[in-house]
Design a protein that fits this description.
Layout: H1 2-49, H2 51-77, H3 80-115, H4 124-153, H5 157-180, H6 185-211, H7 224-258, H8 261-297, H9 301-328, H10 330-338, H11 345-370, H12 376-398, H13 405-429, H14 433-461, H15 466-488, H16 491-510
Helix pairs in contact: 1-5, 1-8, 1-16, 2-3, 2-4, 2-7, 2-8, 3-4, 3-7, 4-6, 5-6, 7-8, 7-12, 8-9, 8-11, 9-11, 9-14, 9-15, 11-13, 12-13, 14-15
């Protein structure tokens, strides 16, 4: 049983990784065209006003993981009635959340965008219209959340991958329409992104009602005690995720208020790049999350601990493969991607990737923290640090520090949050800290040292030019992959990865 589950985890991870390679190339090309069509100033406005677009992409995904905990727990206990009840309660809850969010967006949110946001006078109306489109996109994502969660809980990652690929190509179609439709580009982009969100939501709903028995509305399964448990769990999870996203958007607004629009554009580019690259490690965690919860529900603690230690290493490694060459050759990569690179974009993006690398090691710890369902102390502790990031950033910027200082603050805070996560997971699940330090943190540090130093040295010695950049990227990829496989992974995980890759290769040969 454990062997089959491990193979399934590895296969899901490879599937999601291949899927994300395709999505990454499509997404990066999309950002380049959007930047060219909107211009630096409008792109900066989009980064400030359109922060809800990032919210609609990130927060519902995090909510789906929170909701997925109850679906995965019921599946782990093999309790069909509990699964149906969890779906009915979650669907009702998210419909209620959508109504509440709509009221907040049309009162507090609208007041801020209409009266407080620093936007050039001739772009005020466009910014206001964009806000309404992004608000509707966010509502659509909230309603879709329980359907996305049920797919993840069933570990149906191939279906999830296909829907995501279709969404990426719809967004690619958006940028082509953006070039030819005669309308204000900023407003048009917001409208088209909303349309993609609506189509994507319809797909999730239709597929889930057709595929999974628990997804139905003919009979409502209700349990008030379960509702209270879900509301408490999800409420604290929402607090933690909102504090993270609000911090990110608040720092963008801080830069908007304190520096020129080109600085905000550079910030938006750095966040875009880091979020796209970070999805590679996040996707592996998506495949890891259900078995961690199911192992806890089945009281299989040693399997759970093994998934955390091995999963944390691989989560970091999947991101490091891409992050290392990008950090070293960021100037050339952004120049090739964007053509005209905004000031500060190179440094901002490098620092954003460092922050993402620190976070990646913690992702399986976050999944483990959710398993017991006791989220108050965990989310309150980490959420407080997130809020502290914005307060500290505001203080250092007010004191005259340069714009990049906000990234330094975030990096230091993420190191602190890693330590807090590890301590709290130990308290919640009795996960041994010494085991994590020995089998996860130490191998990660070794891989960073033995791969970063040679790649940086090679980059410094080689001349400038596209062919030399390609050589550095290839060398980094080869060195990182070989080092991770033979040094970073133990025998068990090497076997899992090898079996998964070979099975995918055989599948492609048959095609």
């Amino acid at each position: 049983m454990t062997s089959d589950r491990n193979k399934r985890i590895a296969k899901n991870a490879v599937m999601l990784y291949i899927r994300q390679l395709l999505i990454l190339f499509v997404s990066l090309y999309t950002v380049r065209i959007v930047l060219a069509e909107l211009g630096v100033e409008d792109y900066g406005i989009y980064g400030a006003v359109g922060g809800l677009v990032a919210l609609s992409a990130f927060l519902p995904g995090s909510l789906a993981q929170a909701t997925q905990r109850f679906f995965s727990f019921a599946l782990g206990e093999r309790n069909d009635d509990q699964l149906k009840t969890a779906f009915s309660v979650n669907l009702a809850m998210y419909l209620s959340v959508a109504v509440i969010v709509f009221v907040i967006l049309q009162t507090v949110g609208r007041w801020f965008v209409y009266t407080q946001l620093a936007v050039p006078v001739d772009r005020i109306q466009a910014a206001r219209t964009l806000y309404q489109y992004t608000a509707l996109a966010f509502l659509t994502s909230v309603i879709t959340t329980p359907f996305r969660a049920i797919i993840m809980a069933h570990e149906d990652m191939k279906l999830y991958a296909y829907i995501s690929i279709l969404e990426a190509f719809m967004k690619l179609g958006v940028v082509f329409l953006l070039q030819y439709l005669p309308y204000d580009k900023l407003q048009l982009y917001g409208l088209l992104v909303l349309c993609v969100g609506v189509v994507n939501a319809m797909l999730y709903v239709a597929i889930c009602f057709n595929r999974y028995e628990e997804c139905q509305i003919k009979k409502i399964y209700w349990n008030t005690a379960l509702l209270r448990e879900i509301v408490g769990f999800t409420g604290w999870t929402v607090f933690g995720q909102i504090s993270n996203v609000a911090r990110t958007h608040a720092v963008t607004l801080l830069l908007n208020q304190s520096f020129a629009p080109v600085v905000v554009a550079a910030r938006a580019i750095s966040v875009q790049v880091a979020s796209k690259v970070n999805i590679f490690s996040s996707n592996f965690n998506v495949s890891l999350y259900p078995p961690i919860i199911k192992s806890y529900a089945a009281n299989e603690r040693q399997d759970m601990f093994s998934l955390i230690t091995g999963g944390s290493k691989i989560t970091f490694f999947l991101l490091w493969i891409l992050a290392l060459p990008m950090i070293v050759e960021m100037n050339a990569i952004l120049g090739l991607w964007l053509g005209d690179v905004p000031p500060h974009a190179v440094l901002f993006t490098q620092l954003s990737l460092v922050e993402a690398l620190i976070l990646s090691v913690s992702l399986p710890l976050t999944a483990a923290a959710r398993a017991p369902g006791k989220m108050k102390t965990y989310e309150l502790s980490l959420g407080s640090i997130q809020i502290g990031i914005f307060i500290t950033a505001w203080m250092v910027v007010s004191a005259g520090a340069p714009a990049y200082s906000v990234f330094i603050v975030a990096i230091l805070a993420n190191i602190l949050m890693f330590g807090v996560r590890l301590y709290l997971v130990n308290r919640l699940t009795e996960f041994p800290i010494s085991i994590f330090l020995r089998y996860t943190v130490l191998p990660v540090l070794v891989i960073v040292l033995i791969t970063a130093a040679p790649v940086v040295l090679i980059q410094k010695l080689l001349p400038q030019g596209l062919q030399w950049t390609a050589l550095v990227v290839f060398t980094s990829f080869l060195l990182s992959t070989v080092s991770m496989y033979f040094i970073g992974l133990d025998k068990t995980w090497r076997s899992k990865v090898a079996c998964s890759v070979l099975s995918r290769f055989s599948m492609f040969q048959r095609i």
